[in-house]
Amino acid sequence: MILDKITKHHEMVDSLRNRLLDSGVTLSAPEVDVVTDMMREEILQRYVIARGRIRRLKRLNEIKEKIIDQIFVTLGKHEAVKMKGFFDLLIPALVDIIKIQRCALFSVMEDRERVVLESGYPEAEHGIGQIFSVKEPYIDAVVNMNLPVGDFENETVRRDYIFVKYPQQSALIPAHLKYFLATRGVHSVLYIPLLVGGRVKHFLTFDSQDQRERFSKEEIEILAFLGKELMKGLKLEKLGDILHDFRNPAIAAAGFSKRVKEMLQQGLFPAHAERIYRYLDFIYEETGRIQALALTLYGEGREIIVDLTDRLRKRFIVNSEVLKELHKPGVQLIQPESGPVLPVRCCPLHIDRVLDNLLGNATQAIPDEGGELSIQSYQESSWGVAEIVNTGSMSEEDRKRLLLDEYPGRGLHISLRLVKCMGGRLELDTREGQTIVRVLLPIVREEVHNEP
């Protein structure tokens, strides 16, 4: 098609040349040739530019198709979606655009004062779940889009990206990050904001070994396209996590409902009213927890001060009900009568999800011939500790795989991410045929809010 247009343009130039010569104008034949040659040169230049642009668009479309194909391959495996898998598949598709050393996806939290690191490539080099303040200059610039647009000495700022050409000289990059980038051999950093409803809800960072001056519009388009696909992957991962965590409260609510129904059918009300009311309280709490889980798709929840000991005790009771419903015999439950008040700051739903998953994993790990499941809580230095111990040991290799989040199960993956978001850590150990899991959260000196 382009060649046909060029041929027509040349024919038009030839026609114009003949008309100029026949019209008796004051231009000589050599001068007319110069004019027409200039026109031909202009046409050829436009052709070269158009051809180059078409080639670039074709290459970018091929990359987009490759990204989409990889996503469909991932979804077609009928396995739990994990952002690690998305990054590992999609980032290699970008090698023709940018030599990526590291890439990370951040989410802006509801208060818009903090961001959380959701996932990164390679994952081993990122502290998934870490929270950073928006007061950091580079984060503030991306989240609030408050920099003037233009080409500056160390940065290029556009509405759809910020490119830090020289991180070591840029005022946007704090000293600790400059040191980190220097030790990793990173020569430029690209930030791409991802908007939802006109506000930045996520952003991508690309650390590159390239020392380049600019990105083309097409290259930014493909990187923004990648960001949008990663946002979809993140939502799928969180949806899968929520569906996974529906299990315990749903089983517990069904179990307590069954007990209440049986007691009412046996005419045990009002003689056993206190017990029935206690079961109804559990039903109310667990159905409320299911509702809260569903709502986490639209936000991370409100942080308050809770008693870690109390949360552990309540989840242990719920887990014991789940154990009965699953008809797993031979498990002896050991719970201390009391424990110290351990005030920690977190979203109640998050700590409950962590404890549910860890108690569920511990229950499943108990051998078929039976064993013990016990809990205790205590203070260790400035940390509040929730400890879960079960009969059954694991190999050192499996222990490392679990802590590195390389195990196929989803429960520990969810727990690791949530504990990091709460500023805590997870420890796993084995001794004398037992597995010990400890959740450590920083203790705060504030009043505990009693919330179900």
Q: What order do the SSEs take from the amino end to the carboxyl end, as H and E? A: HHHEEEHEEEHEEHHHEHEEHEEHHEE
Question: What is the CA-atom radius of gyration, in angstroms?
Answer: 31 Å
Number of helices, counting only DSSP H or I runs of 4 residues or more: 12
CATH topology of the largest domain: Heat Shock Protein 90
Q: Please identify which CATH superfamily of the largest domain we are dealing with.
A: Histidine kinase-like ATPase, C-terminal domain
User: Beta-strand level of the residues, as a percent range?
Assistant: 15-25%
CATH architecture of the largest domain: 2-Layer Sandwich
Give your account of this protein's structure:
The protein is of the alpha+beta class and 452 residues long. The chain has four domains: 74 residues; 149 residues, GAF domain (Beta-Lactamase, 2-Layer Sandwich), CATH 3.30.450; 53 residues; 153 residues, Heat Shock Protein 90 (2-Layer Sandwich), CATH 3.30.565.10. It is built from twelve helices and 15 strands. It is elongated. The model has no long low-confidence stretch (mean pLDDT 82).
